[in-house]
Amino acid sequence: MQNSIKNIQSLRGMKDIVGSESELFTYFVENASKIAKKYGFSYIETPLLEETALFKRSVGESSDIVNKEMYQFIDKGQNDVCLRPEGTAGVVRHFVEKKLDRAGGVYKWYYYGPMFRYERPQKGRLREFHQFGCEVFGLQSVYEDANIIIMIKEILEFFGIGFTLKLNSLGCSDCMPKYKESLVEHLSSFKEELCEDCNRRLLTNPIRVLDCKIEKCQSLLTNSPKITNNLCNSCNTDFNKLKEILDFNNISYEIDSNLVRGLDYYNKTAFEFVSNEIGSQSAIAGGGRYDRLVEFLGGKSTPGIGFAIGIERLLELVKKNDEKEDFVYIGVLDEASLNKAFEIGIKKRKTTKTYIEYTPRGFAKHFGIAEKLGCNIVALIGENELKNETIYTKNIGTKEEITVKLGDF
Ligand code: HAM
Question: Concatenated DSSP letters for 74-101?
Answer without folding.
Answer: E-TTS-EEEE-S-SHHHHHHHHHHTTHH
